[in-house]
Amino acid sequence: MKKTIALTLTLALVLSLTACGKGGNGGDDKKSEGVMTYAEYMAADLDSEVVIETYVQAKQSWWEDKATLYTQDKDGAYFIYNAVCSEADYEKLTPGTKIKVTGYKTEWSGEVEVAEGATIEIEDGNYVAPVTDVTDLLGKDELIDHQNQFVSFKGMTVEAADDSGAAFLYNWDGSGEDGNDLYFNVSKDGQTYTFTVESYLCDNSTEVYQAVKNLNVGDTVDMEGYLYWYEGVNPHITSVTVK
Amino acid sequence: MRMKWKKALTAFFIGTSLLTLTGCHGSRALPDFTVPEEFDASKNYEITFWAKNDTNRNQTDVYKKAIADFESLYPNIKVNMKLYTDYGRIFNDVITNIATGTTPNVCITYPDHIATYMTGKNTVVPLDDLFADEKYGLGGDSLLYDSPAQEEIVPQFLSECVLERQHYAIPYMRSTECCYINKDYVEKLGYTLPDVLTWDFIWEVSEAATAKNADGTFALNGQNVMIPFIYKSTDNMMIQTLKQQGADYSTPEGDIGLFNDTTEAFLYEIADHVESGAFSTFKISSYPANFLNAGQCVFAIDSTAGATWMGADAPLSDISEDAFVDFETAVRMVPQFDPEHPQMISQGPSICVFNKADPQEVLASWLFAQYLLTDEVQISYAQTEGYLPVTLKAQESPVYQDYLSRRGEDNQTYYDIKIDASKLLLAHTGDTFVTPVFNGSASLRNAAGQLIENVAASVRRHETVDDAYMEKLTADVTALYRLDQKEIASGSRQELGALPQTAVFLLSALAIAWCLILLYVIRDFVRKRKNH
């Protein structure tokens, strides 16, 4: 009997740890007092104060105590623009780090974000969001429900980025050079979409930057990245695999 | 997509921060530049040119052609171009490279930024001697191309490049701001568009445009979105408003007059119009063109160099084709307080030349910089946007006059709104002004815009904007841009007073030690001579 109880308790313990799994404390993602759920954040008016707990997924940039972050909890994603953050704290932020953000909700050309000047507190907890395949949502209204999330696109075809037949452009119109943002077109089911390698997020030393520079029109690719928005969907791609 | 203002802002902060570091750790000073008697064509020179474009492929093509043409004239000079899309990033990189002695040779810049570069001794080449050089100066007789004489550069634009009584740059292109207007909406609201907009008119029409239908849509456009008046550069908005009212902004010496009653009254007015939904800014809402072209804005104020993005037939756009609405676009000066005496900002890129140890390399750089003033480069680049060539020679040339006369022939080269914008500046060059340039003037400019941005954001967040708010705003913006540190803001040399006693003692001890060493060496030398 004792053995059975011991075994049951051990299994229960293992199960509870597994439930936390990769997400650590973020597994249950219980919000602290006074903190909004993702649903409450989304329901909040623009320009209203928001308090959220979320988990860093990627860091875009830091300068002069301001950090721009892609973050996500188990319910949805939050883009944090130029939050107040010391360099020391920025170094502590790694994929999964839990943070509490207090600021104002805003929207800029369709991108819903926490506006410049928000404050950040690092908390205990860790959660790395799984990738969500949104390929089938391209061109559909539901895609925006995944705004800022870590997402993937599968089996898309590289199209010419301009009349010259180039597979990618430096800057949106080809006016840039190595080190600038990369723009490339990919299609699915006859519809073409423009994707971006954001050079602050992934500079020209990264694998994804080099991979996009090596793309050929007609390649079939799988991609991962963050579902950024600018006058429509404008994914910031972090990996490209040619199939 | 077309320009990342967020990146530009970050780059600006990087630059302003690095400025102080550079001040502390400047590289070894270069010698004064003297114009060589002859350009040494037997040696090869490789120069770097840091160029700025408006994320516009046509502009990069003009640069590339100019470089190729120049290199064919001077085969011993190779020009390596590095492209930028915002001034802040160039500023940041130059500051970083001043510290390491690796500045470019030729650089597109703003005079505000040159004032900061000049904190490094002999960093930027004063150009007056080069201008006047008979062989290689403006219109020089040994040049291999047709360069403008000094008097053929628009005097007003050239004078903007004077710092500390010398020319440290040549103008490259000039633009101003203008108001792009949905004329149909103005008339639908029962108004007639005047030739010169006044602030009273623009506020009145904007307020009228906020009226809504019972279903919550806007009466003017039937859409859910309508921001009647959007301003791209709130820095310019504040600066021009103060200038038009004769209010203080700054003195040439760097004394700051931004925080005054006129500023405060204007901020209260802005607060009222943000509250009603009549006004917003680019930083809060997005590019004015996106709203104007979608029929969601009546008055969009942006640079004349942004004209190709404006209007129902704009050749460049970030919004989808199905979001466009059809309307008549009108171009006017920015709103005025005194329509009889309009005043508007003069802006646009200038070119500076950085000093190097080899005067021949500097001369090679100057030859290229000056080449950018030739008619072909000037006219080609001006046609890419609502820019104006900076030389009278180019402005008056048959080629440019033909370009202007073909307004509206197509929606690319001869796009009517773009040519209207250029003509506006051409007609009002005498009504333009620039703000005083000093080390720190770039910060003051940003502070001017920040006041408007903060007030607009606060009103949207339902904060109370009253006297206490204004007092705190002044303190916050002053601290943020370090405007209270006059020696930093103005670049003036700080009077440090008499040396402390300890410093005097140490320096005296060092001097005595050196004297003793010298005496010992002399005595030793004399003794050895005697022994011989």
Provide structural commentary.
- The complex is a heterodimer of chains A (243) and B (532).
- Chain A has 243 residues and is an alpha+beta fold.
- Chain A contains 4 helices and 13 strands.
- In chain A, the strands form 2 sheets. In chain A, strands 7, 8, 9, 10, 11, 12 and 13 form a 7-stranded mixed sheet that branches.
- Chain A starts with a helix and ends with a strand.
- Chain B is α/β, with parallel strands linked by helices.
- Chain B folds into 3 domains: 5-174 and 347-396, D-Maltodextrin-Binding Protein, domain 2; 177-345 and 437-488, D-Maltodextrin-Binding Protein, domain 2, CATH 3.40.190.10; 503-532.
- Helices cover 44% and strands 11% of the residues of chain B.
- Chain B has 21 helices and 16 strands.
- In chain B, a hairpin with a 2-residue loop joins strand 4 and strand 5.
- The relative contact order of chain B is 0.14.
Extended strand count of chain B:
16
Helical run tally of chain B: 21
Number of domains as seen in the coordinates of chain B: 3
Mean pLDDT across all amino acids of chain A: 90
Uncertain stretches of chain A = 5-26
| Cα radius of gyration of chain A in angstroms | 20 Å
User: What is the total domain count of chain A?
Assistant: 2
Q: Round the Cα radius of gyration of chain B to an integer and report it.
A: 27 Å
CATH-level-2 architecture of the largest domain in chain B? 3-Layer(aba) Sandwich
Q: Count interface residues per chain for the largest interface.
A: A-B, 30 and 30 residues
- Provide the β-strand percentage band of chain A: 35-45%
Looking at how many chains there are and whether they match, the oligomeric state comes to heterodimer
Q: Which bin fits the share of residues in helices of chain B? A: 40-55%
Strand count of chain A: 13
**What's the mean pLDDT score of chain B?**
90
Which descriptor suits the 3D outline of chain A? globular
Query: Biggest sheet of chain B: strands, sense, closure?
Result: 5 strands, mixed
Overall geometry of chain B: globular
